[in-house]
Amino acid sequence: MKLPEFKDSKLFEKVFIHRSYLNEGGKNMESNERIEFLGDSILSFIVSSYVYENYPEYDEGKLTSLRSVLTNTETLALVSGQLGLGEKLKLSKGEESNGGRKNKTILANTYEAVLGGIFLDQGLEDAADFVKKTIIDNMDDFVKEQGLKDPKSKLQERLQEIYKNSPVYKIESEEGPDHERFYTVGVYIEDKLLAKGKGKSKQIAEKVAAKEALSSV
User: Fold this and answer.
1) Would you say residue 1 lies in a domain?
2) Domain count, the chain
3) Angle at 59 between CA 58 and CA 63, to 5 degrees
4) I need a labelling partner for 92 at 20 to 30 A (CA). Which of 20, 98, 102, 204 fits?
């Protein structure tokens, strides 16, 4: 599938400007972060509306799990790769040399920025059509690959059974520059550390920690 043609060419350029690029001659530019913020909310709305309307037999928990599979970093990064979004990114030389065009977090964020751009340029209907063609139409493949319950959901259920309580995730440390943060997150139950996880986003680090904790509880 090809990206829809934007009416506003400057907006199209903006959705691919990574914040690292501003450090190398792009200081008068604006990164795609604000548009990404918008796209994240639009994606959640579109997918939430779809699963609510099409799965009336699902309770809130199952709807949340299905939405998570369709909007998580793994799914968005895969779709971004298929669309060739990484090739269009404007990155700093450092980010480029560190494999930024294939970085899953950056690719996922770029998908959200593109979606936000489509919404601004063409409206909600076209944005929803883009999500349908790139994600919803391939939903069965994503669910089959990842399962409906992510590690955090599975850990939540198991700890509720054992402790009648929910896990708490705490950031243990943050490393690296702003555009290349690396997080270490600990997952606790009743102040007891179960496991730690690392990742290039808080979400990824939490999932890694949850996966590690599942092997010990």
Assistant:
1) no
2) 2
3) 70
4) 204
